[in-house]
Structure formats: structure tokens, C-alpha cells
């Protein structure tokens, strides 16, 4: 399999962590994609030009990260990323994690991609409101950090992304989540192993 991503993509990290923890990483080669360049392999593979995309051994292309995790489950002895016995709960935590990363990406792009004079603070505040509400809800009820399913992996990647891009000072605002992430990191060294050098 070929995974097209970058070292820093939080959605790419989610897929890499899932692959390492569930024993699929030996079957995956990572190729660097670049969403900003015409003709890049990423755009040729995923018409939306978003990372990550996965090319299966049969030459079938899969995106987005959530569908890649669904595909991984088909390669395992049973569904481990979306376990049947708690599928709905896992899907909701997974959505929360995806939404956190998406809002974080919108804030990062507003700051980094838009010329400073056009940067629109009310839009950033609107996105940060999503982060605040979602993290507050997570601090009240987080998934088991010792189980690596689509929900916990994605939430851990969201917190790792905020540590890098600082869209929110989550460690100060939601200290209860520090212990949660530490427990996940300790249980799954794949989290630290996929941390990009910035
Ligand atoms: N829903 C997609 C989102 C992927 C995404 O937004 N990736 C970012 C990088 S982490 C990207 O490729 N951005 C470039 C762009 O939107 O053009 C997924 O889960 O894979």
C-alpha cells in the first residue's frame, strides 16, 4: 500500500498510528504529497487534493482518512478501529476528533495561508468556539485511552496538532485532558513515534 501524506498532517498521523498499532505498517510505504502544487501525486490520486490518500495493492485509491480506517478494519481479524460492540460511541468520538482537527486546520490556514491584512479574527473565534466546546465535552467524558480505536486515535491526533499549531492552549484550559493524552501515549508508543519534527 502507498500512503500519500506528509509528516505533519494530523489526518495522516491518524492513519499512520492506526496502521502501526494494528500491525499494518510493514505493508505501507509513505510517499510525500503536496496539496499546494499542481500535478502533485496527491492531486493525481485524490481529486480533492487532501491528505491522506491510500493506494491499495490492487491499485484502488481510498480517501479520506476515515474511509482508510474503515478499509484497515477489513484487513484485520475483526473490526478494531470501529469495533462492532461500541460502534456508535466510537463513531461519535471519531467525529468529534475529526471536527476538532478540521476547525484547527481552518484556524491554521486563516493565519498561515491568508495575507495578514485579510485575516478575519471573528472567523478564528468562531472556530475556536468549536474547539472550546468540543474539548469541554471531552474533558467531561473521554473514551478509554488504553483502547486504540478510531475515536481515541483521532482525538489524540487533535491534541497533538494543537500542541504544534497552538490554535488553543488546551493544556491550560482543559488540564483533565493532559492525563488522558499521557495515558494514551504510554499505552501506544506509536503516538510519539509519529510526532513530526517541526
Ligand atoms: N476529511 C479529510 C480531511 C483531510 C485534510 O483536510 N487534510 C489537510 C492536511 S491535514 C489537507 O490536505 N489540506 C490541504 C487542502 O485542503 O487543500 C480526511 O479525513 O482525510
Describe this structure in words.
This protein has 198 residues and is an alpha+beta fold. It has 2 domains: 2-75, Glutaredoxin; 84-193, Glutathione S-transferase Yfyf (Class Pi), Chain A, domain 2. Helix content is 56%, strand content 7%. It has a 4-stranded mixed β-sheet. The longest helix is centred in the middle third of the chain and has 26 residues, at 87-112. It binds glutathione (GSH). Glutathione (GSH) is lined by residues 9-11, 35, 49-52, 64-66, 105. The site of glutathione has 12 residues, from α1 and α3.
What is the element layout, followed by pairings?
Layout lengths: L1 E4 L4 H12 L7 E4 L8 H5 L7 E3 L5 E2 L2 H11 L11 H26 L8 H20 L9 H16 L4 H4 L2 H12 L2 H4 L5
Parallel strand pairs: 1-2
Antiparallel strand pairs: 1-3, 3-4
Helix pairs in contact: 1-3, 1-6, 4-5, 4-6
The structure holds glutathione (GSH).
The site of glutathione (GSH) has 12 residues, from helix 1 and helix 3.
Amino acid at each position: 500500500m502507498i500512503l500519500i501524506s506528509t509528516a505533519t498532517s494530523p489526518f495522516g498521523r491518524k492513519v499512520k498510528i492506526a496502521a502501526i498499532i494494528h500491525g499494518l505498517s510493514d505493508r505501507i510505504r509513505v510517499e510525500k504529497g503536496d496539496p499546494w502544487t499542481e500535478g502533485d501525486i496527491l492531486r493525481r490520486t485524490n481529486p480533492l487534493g487532501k491528505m491522506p490518500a491510500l493506494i491499495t495493492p490492487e491499485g484502488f485509491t481510498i480517501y479520506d482518512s476515515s474511509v482508510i480506517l474503515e478499509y484497515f478494519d477489513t484487513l484485520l481479524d475483526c473490526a478494531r478501529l470501529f469495533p462492532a460492540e461500541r460502534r456508535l460511541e466510537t463513531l461519535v468520538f471519531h467525529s468529534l476528533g475529526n471536527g476538532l482537527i478540521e476547525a484547527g486546520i481552518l484556524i491554521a490556514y486563516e493565519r498561515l495561508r491568508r495575507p495578514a491584512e485579510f485575516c478575519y479574527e471573528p472567523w478564528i473565534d468562531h472556530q475556536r468556539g468549536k474547539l472550546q466546546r468540543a474539548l469541554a465535552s471531552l474533558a467531561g467524558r473521554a473514551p478509554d485511552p488504553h483502547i486504540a480505536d478510531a475515536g481515541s486515535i483521532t482525538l489524540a491526533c487533535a491534541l497533538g496538532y494543537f500542541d504544534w499549531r497552538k490554535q488553543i492552549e488546551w493544556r491550560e484550559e482543559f488540564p483533565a485532558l493532559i492525563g488522558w493524552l499521557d495515558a494514551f501515549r504510554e499505552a501506544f508508543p506509536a503516538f510519539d513515534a509519529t510526532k513530526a519534527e517541526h
